[in-house]
């Protein structure tokens, strides 16, 4: 009978499941790992399978992280973290399959681009990286009365922890919050302290409704600039849409009426 | 002057961003600088686009003119002194505050400051310098600054400015000295080339002087290894002050003993001098130069002035000046596009201008990109075997880009590559298939023949749109360079009458 490990949808959750699945010696082909997204619907309930619910265990996750870094490479470790944060449904099992190869081949596993599994990892990693890169530019802060900078985002992948360090480095003297409204995650930075990632309860979420997003005069200046900088004779909305997909625009100052 | 005192910052921004929109800049700067822990700002080598305007172009910098007042009268420019337009000027304080506040809100990556000439080149340069000084020393701004040097300004001012800016540019404006004389009578080419040279020399000088990491890099001669199959570096190979330069004026600037101005104690010692290097811009289609002339100038600038980028800007007759070409049908965007493609071939694909164009064939084909065009003229070099060809050979295959070429080299270490692998590696098979083999076999049995491949490469959609017969031959097609076409609105191409 097939064994299906159901784990939390997080880096540590997936790593824990990988540890348990691997050490069970049940045979790679008889095992499947599924990350359970919030709300907990299974991707596909299989009738004749054993379901094992995995409790995230940081010790075990750390062990997996350590052996990836030591036996494969730091690069591959970082790539797998990004895969774990992606919105690809079958990512947990893909990571497992990839690690079977990885522990066998070592650091050169990423070179095997013609291998289907490696190629998929490569593509998802690129996809997450692209969104991270997009978000670094497209995040917009609004200034609240007390000087706090706030930003609301709706990324496809769970990139908040990947983009926050960039803003911490860039705005060391600013107090700011970035809020992923779909995932109810917020990262908070207060000058000269390490930034933190918060999971917001339903109660806390309302805080973001109280913030204003049309307060300051710089928003108008920015909109003015945005409109004036375009060259009429070269207008090309298709190109604009390719470069800046519509899904980002609802969170961007210059596209607000 | 009185009017602008009363002008709101909103109004000034309207006028001065509108006036700056034709300048091209980009931040893929090669400068990686993390934050300092205080102040504000960092810089990423790959550049970040913060938005895209309605014309589809990237917005990454607050791109404004300091002033649109100008004592010069360049024919192609909306700010020329003979035009009756509303004039405005920022103050250095306004520029620095606008930059800081935009930057905090993550609207921009930094500032791109250009300017008309108010009172005199030196006066203007001093105002710009003050704006930059405020940003760096008062606001501790650590983000990206691109700044124009005003031709004709005192070398000492340019010297100081370079310590504050990441990138500097001086626009060449037009490819030849003669065109410049005709269209920009107050400018002269030497005044443009001299500061380029000054900044280049200072950059090299201070790299050694400061002993900063990466010191001698721009002098290093990257010779690509054409024989190695796994080389990953392919950078333009020439650096030579004694190269044969066709343009006597450029030759003169290069060989004359350009003395560095007296060495200043630079204001901020932990910065490099113009770390992102220099760029320049040429207007395309205002004067009669051919693509060959334009690309030769670009190549000279890359090889001898160590420029990071040359930008090409399709001419727009903003003043409806009857002495200049009419652009009511739209600016020559396709030509601009081809020049950029060729520019990439020079910088990243190991091509030289003389391989792409020559006196007899001085303009790019509008229907084929320069690489396809080159490949069709060199069919004897194809097909190449992807499992063994070296990097520089792969880079010359249409449909294979720098990324896919490197991926091929990586992936073939562990497996023999087949055609369906190539797709996964990002190769555009539709184009590449005529030029490659996998393990000795071509994808389909096709004969390598000019006319056949040409017809395949131009998609049927393009043919219909452009009214080209389906049985066109390469010879006929190569007559269709830009000179024989007018680019009408809606991207339709028609054969010019007469
Ligand atoms: S100097 Fe510059 S701003 Fe003045 S007219 Fe010439 S191009 Fe325009």
Descriptive overview:
The complex is a heterodimer of chains A (257) and B (498). Chain A folds into 2 domains: 2-130, no CATH class; 139-255, no CATH class. In chain A, 47% of the residues lie in helices and 15% in strands. The relative contact order of chain A is 0.09. Chain A has 10 helices and 8 strands. The N and C termini of chain A lie far apart (57 Å). Chain A is of the alpha/beta class and 257 residues long. Chain A has helices spanning 11-23, 58-72, 74-84, 91-105, 116-138, 160-170, 202-210, 217-228, 237-243, 246-249, and strands at 2-8, 31-36, 49-53, 142-143, 149-153, 176-180, 185-189, 196-199. With 498 residues, chain B is of the alpha/beta class. Chain B folds into 2 domains: 2-321, TIM Barrel, CATH 3.20.20; 370-458, no CATH class. Chain B has a 6-stranded parallel beta sheet with strand order 3-4-5-6-7-8. A two-stranded antiparallel ribbon of chain B has the order 1-2. A two-stranded parallel sheet of chain B has the order 9-10. In chain B, helix 3 (92-104) packs across helix 4, helix 4 (121-138) packs parallel to helix 5 and helix 5 crosses helix 7 (189-210). The longest helix of chain B is centred in the middle third of the chain and has 22 residues, at 189-210. Chain B is globular, with a radius of gyration of 24 Å. Mean pLDDT of chain B is 79; it is low at 208-242, 261-266 and 478-498. At the A-B interface, helix 5, strand 4, helix 6, helix 8 and helix 9 of A face helix 2, strand 1, strand 2, strand 3 and helix 3 of B. Bound molecules: iron/sulfur cluster. Residues 70, 72, 74, 77, 79-80, 116-117, 184 of chain B line the site of iron/sulfur cluster (SF4).
């Amino acid at each position: 009978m097939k064994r299906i490990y159901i784990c939390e949808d997080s880096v540590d959750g997936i790593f824990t499941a990988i540890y348990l699945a691997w050490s069970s010696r049940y045979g790679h082909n008889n095992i499947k790992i599924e990350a359970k997204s919030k709300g907990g619907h299974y991707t596909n309930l299989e009738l004749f399978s054993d379901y094992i619910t995995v409790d995230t265990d940081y010790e075990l996750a750390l062990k997996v992280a350590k052996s990836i870094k030591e036996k494969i490479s730091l690069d591959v470790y970082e790539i797998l973290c990004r895969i774990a944060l992606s919105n690809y449904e079958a990512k947990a099992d893909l990571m497992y399959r990839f690690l079977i190869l990885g522990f066998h081949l070592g650091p050169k596993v990423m070179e095997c681009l013609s291998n289907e599994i490696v190629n998929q990892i490569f593509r998802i990693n690129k996809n997450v990286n692209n969104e991270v890169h997009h978000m670094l530019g497209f995040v917009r802060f609004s200034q609240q009365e007390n000087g706090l900078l706030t930003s609301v985002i709706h990324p496809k992948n769970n990139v908040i922890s990947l983009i926050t360090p960039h803003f911490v480095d860039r705005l060391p003297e600013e107090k700011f919050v970035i809020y992923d409204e779909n995932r109810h995650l917020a990262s908070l930075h207060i000058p000269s302290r390490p930034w933190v990632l918060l999971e917001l309860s339903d109660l806390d979420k309302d805080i973001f409704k109280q913030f204003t997003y049309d307060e300051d005069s710089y928003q108008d200046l920015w909109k003015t600039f945005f409109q004036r900088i375009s060259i009429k004779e070269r207008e090309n909305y298709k190109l604009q849409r390719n470069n800046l997909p519509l899904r980002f625009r609802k969170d961007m100052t210059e596209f607000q009426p | 002057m009185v009017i602008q005192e009363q002008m709101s910052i909103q109004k000034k921004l309207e006028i001065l961003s509108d006036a700056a929109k034709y300048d091209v800049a980009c931040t893929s700067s090669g400068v990686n600088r993390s934050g300092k822990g205080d102040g504000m700002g960092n810089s990423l080598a790959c550049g970040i686009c913060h938005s895209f305007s309605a014309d589809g172009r990237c917005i990454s910098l607050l791109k404004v003119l300091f002033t649109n007042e100008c004592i010069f009268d360049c024919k192609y420019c909306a700010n020329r002194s003979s035009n009756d337009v509303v004039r405005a000027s920022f103050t250095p304080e306004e520029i620095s505050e606008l930059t800081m506040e935009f930057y905090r809100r993550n609207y921009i990556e930094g500032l791109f400051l250009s300017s008309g000439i108010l009172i005199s080149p030196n006066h203007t340069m001093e105002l710009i310098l003050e704006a930059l000084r405020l940003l760096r020393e008062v606001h501790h701004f650590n983000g990206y600054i691109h700044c124009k040097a005003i031709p004709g300004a005192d070398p000492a001012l340019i010297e100081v400015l370079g310590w504050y800016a990441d990138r500097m540019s001086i626009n060449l404006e037009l490819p030849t000295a003669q065109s410049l004389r005709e269209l920009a009578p107050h400018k002269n080419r030497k005044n443009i080339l001299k500061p380029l040279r000054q900044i280049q020399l200072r950059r090299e000088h201070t790299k050694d002087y400061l002993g900063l990491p990466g010191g001698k890099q721009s002098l290093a001669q990257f010779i690509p290894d054409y024989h190695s199959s796994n080389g990953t570096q392919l950078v333009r190979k020439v650096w030579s002050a004694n190269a044969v330069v066709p343009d006597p004026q450029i030759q003169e600037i290069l060989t004359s003993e350009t003395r560095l101005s007296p060495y200043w104690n630079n204001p901020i010692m932990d910065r490099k001098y113009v770390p992102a290097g220099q760029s320049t811009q040429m207007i395309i289609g205002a004067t009669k130069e051919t693509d060959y002339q334009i690309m030769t100038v670009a190549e000279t600038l890359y090889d001898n002035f160590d420029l990071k980028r040359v930008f090409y800007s399709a001419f727009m007759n903003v003043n409806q000046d009857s002495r200049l070409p009419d652009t009511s049908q739209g600016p020559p965007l396709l030509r601009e596009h081809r020049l950029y493609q060729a520019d990439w071939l020079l910088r990243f694909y190991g091509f030289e201008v003389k391989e792409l164009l020559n006196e007899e064939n001085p303009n790019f084909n509008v229907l084929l990109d320069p690489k396809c065009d080159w490949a069709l003229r060199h069919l004897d070099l194809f097909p190449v075997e992807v499992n063994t060809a070296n990097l520089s050979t792969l880079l010359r295959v249409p449909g294979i880009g720098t990324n896919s070429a490197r991926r091929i080299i990586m992936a073939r270490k562990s497996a023999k590559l087949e055609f369906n692998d190539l797709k996964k590696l990002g190769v555009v098979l539709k184009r590449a298939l005529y030029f490659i083999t996998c393990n000795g076999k071509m994808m389909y049995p096709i004969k390598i023949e000019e006319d056949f491949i040409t017809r395949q490469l131009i998609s049927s959609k393009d043919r219909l749109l452009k009214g080209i017969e389906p049985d066109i031959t390469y010879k006929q097609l190569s007559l269709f360079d830009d000179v024989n076409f007018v680019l009408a609105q809606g991207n339709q191409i028609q054969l010019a009458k007469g």
